């Protein structure tokens, strides 16, 4: 009986430890957006530099957490903050792709450096055949 009483706190501790959320989410790399009204989170986020003679772009790519065949790509000029830096969003839905028209893209980049990107974004994305995907409440917060 005494052994069972001693095992009870250990059992409770093990149950509590197994209840913590561990979904592999890296809080230093956040990319999410509402896609047609449903919040989507992106993982395996990469940031690449596209160096041109007069400027350098960041290309941010993320795979949708619940379906890695769905991918979002953001392009912005490196080092530029404000509403004019991000100029392109593309969303791949399996084999279909939708991209933004610059005039319909709304973005605000509050930090854009060699070590951190912070931005919000939204846009209606078009596949060229009149089908539209609405991207709203986009959040980008990446340390690298």
Note the main attributes of this structure:
144 residues; mainly beta; 8-stranded antiparallel barrel; 1 helix; 9 strands; globular
Overview of this structure, please?
The chain starts with a helix and ends with a strand. An eight-stranded antiparallel barrel has the order 1-2-3-4-5-6-8-9. The chain has one helix and nine strands; from the N terminus they run αβββββββββ. The model is unreliable at 17-25 (pLDDT under 50). A hairpin with an 8-residue loop joins strand 4 (67-77) and strand 5. It is globular. Helix content is 12%, strand content 58%.
Brief overview, please?
The protein has 144 residues and is mainly beta.
**Rounded to an integer, what's the Rg over CA atoms?**
20 Å
Tell me the number of helical segments per DSSP (H or I, 4 or more residues long).
Answer: 1
How much helix, percentage-wise, in residues? 10-25%
Tally of strands: 9
């Amino acid at each position: 009986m005494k052994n069972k009483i001693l095992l009870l706190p250990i059992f409770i501790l093990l149950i509590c430890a197994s209840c913590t959320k561990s979904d592999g989410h890296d809080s230093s790399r956040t990319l999410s957006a509402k896609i047609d009204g449903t919040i989507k989170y992106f993982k395996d986020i990469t940031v690449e530099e596209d160096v041109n003679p007069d400027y350098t772009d960041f290309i941010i790519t993320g795979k949708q957490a619940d379906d890695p065949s769905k991918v979002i790509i953001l392009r912005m000029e490196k080092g530029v903050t404000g509403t004019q830096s991000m100029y392109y969003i593309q969303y791949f839905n399996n084999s279909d792709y939708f991209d933004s028209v610059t005039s319909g893209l709304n973005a605000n980049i509050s930090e854009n450096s060699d070590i951190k990107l912070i931005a919000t974004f939204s846009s209606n994305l078009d596949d060229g055949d009149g089908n539209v995907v609405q991207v709203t409440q986009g959040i980008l917060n990446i340390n690298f």
